[in-house]
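User: I'm writing a tutorial on reading structure tokens. Could you give me a worked example: one chain, its sequence, then its tokens, then a sentence or two explaining what the tokens reveal?
Assistant: Sure. Here is the example chain.
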Amino acid sequence: FARYSVDGEWFAPHFEKMLYDNAQLVSLYSEAYTITKDDFFKTVVYDTFAWLQREMTHADGGFYSALDADSEGIEGKYYIWTNDEMASVVGEANAQIVSEYFETTSTGNWEHGANILKQIEDVQPILKKYNLDKTELTSIVQSAKQKLLNVRDSRVKPGLDDKILTGWNAMTISGLLDAYHAFGDEQFLTAAGNNARFLQNNLMEGSKLFRSFKGKRSATEGFLEDYAYFIQALIKLYQAEFDEQSLRQAEKITDYVLENFFDKHESYFYFTSSKAEKLIARKKEIFDNVIPSSNGIMVQNLYHLGILLDREDWKELAVTMTTELSHLIYNEPNYMSNWGIVLTEMKHGMAEVAFVGENCLKLKNAFKKDYQPFSLLMGTTAKSSLPLLADKVTRADISMIYVCYDKTCKLPVTKVEDALQQIV
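And here are its predicted structure tokens:
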């Protein structure tokens, strides 16, 4: 995804590509797929992931920050095509079909006779005109896109901002884990795990995070967003793998944030650590912008960890922080949407879903294929130190699912469909 559109019809993009946009949109389209099962959303996620691997991934698993809009001094030059160029690449047999699919013209739909490829909204006229079915058209388009990509790769590439930022990488981990649960594809989990290890190996010292990496880590400590997004990523990583080390690391980092970022007088988090370079004033980031509010993500982390770890103090703090801003959440939802999410979770109530036994991960993956916004997952094949799992008996011959609310569990079941019936 490009950074934004420069016109009122969402046609011409500002061609710069940011990691944080694509990270959030992978989450969005993955969740949309779990609700709709629309293969278009799946294609968007897989195409974005292919871009991430192809153009944005460090050899050790970190993700770069951005691609410039221009190359050779011309904005968008890397991405635009004349009709003749497209025809020579795609082949005359399918050139007209591809041109109509991407709404290109012989005179160009943009500047200087060039075309921006824009997928047509309704393919029915093309199917009827060329006597094609959807499968045939998809095959033609996919083949054309691959040929165009191969040629485009030989062009002068846009400049790469190869900084690796902790917060933006952590957002991408969350997006990849959402994709993993939506599609059950291990490559998303592998990429997320590799990135988490990169951050742990290169941008952590104890529970302290550093802001960026470029050949070596920066001396600058991370901001609240780096901590908040990484804690969020670790919570999601635990729910993907049921490795309690991820959850314990999230707990330790949260303790660090509470010690070094929290304003006890106002009950919100500063953007900078008390150990960082002293500024004239320490600001607090409350509103969502192009990335979510770091306080908004942190309050959700406190609420989720409070449930998973049975930390009533963290849950109560999260409720207090959110309640005090409820008037803003209601009146300014565009700028408070992540606060709105956690407020909705609090009002609705969160299911604590425990999977125990040898097949716990298999059952969990089946459970997560559909959209489950009001549930937190935990699981173990044997013993667990987590309070809700501590008294759950695992059996060698059978795996069980417990759906619980406020630490009170319903009768255990063995089938995902029965567990889903217990979700309110």
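What the tokens reveal: The chain has a mean pLDDT of 96. The longest strand covers residues 351-356.
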